[in-house]
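I am writing to request your help with a piece of structural work I have in hand. A protein sequence and the structure tokens that stand for its backbone fold form the material at issue. Please examine both parts with care and let me know of anything in them that strikes you as inconsistent. The record follows directly beneath this note.
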Amino acid sequence: MYVLYHSPFSQHARRVVSLLVEAKLDHDLRNVAMDAGEHRSSEYLQINPNHQVPTLIDGDIKIHESNAILRYLCTKHGLSDWYPTELRERAAVEQWLDWNQCRLSPAVVDIVLNAVFLGAAGDRAAIERGTKRLEELEPIIESALTVQPYLAGTRPTIADLSLASSVFQLTLADVTLNGARTREWFGRIQGIDGFRRSLPDA
């Protein structure tokens, strides 16, 4: 059985939960109360020195980064529906996983961390920075979804689970993406059982 250290308010942890549920992989969720500082406790730092979630434990294998965990699970269990082997689709999945982490995620963190989790102590300049960056990034998602229903083609992949977890995170700050195709896509992802069950209070 997999052990996953997570928090339901972490978009990075939720995308892993989505896949675990969808693939029907036995797992034990261990909540890390980040609001209480558990992620910086000496006990958790022994598990993840980056003081972040998620962390996946598989026997003597320990993996920290969410997209790396998604790739690992798909590779180990042959989940080709979620992580296609056809080169064109695989390249698109890899591109969107990295794009989400390197381009969209910093904007999401700027907005949600400062507008929601830090409350009055939030950095208003960071919120503005994230909002401005989001204006640039939204059309890129919309353009990709204009030619196909999912990021890598005609079926959802781990790239969709990853990106949708960030899009949902924005809703915590009452931010929604405006593109019609993006909204349709997000509606389809919300219909995925594993995605729904990964959400806070699901």
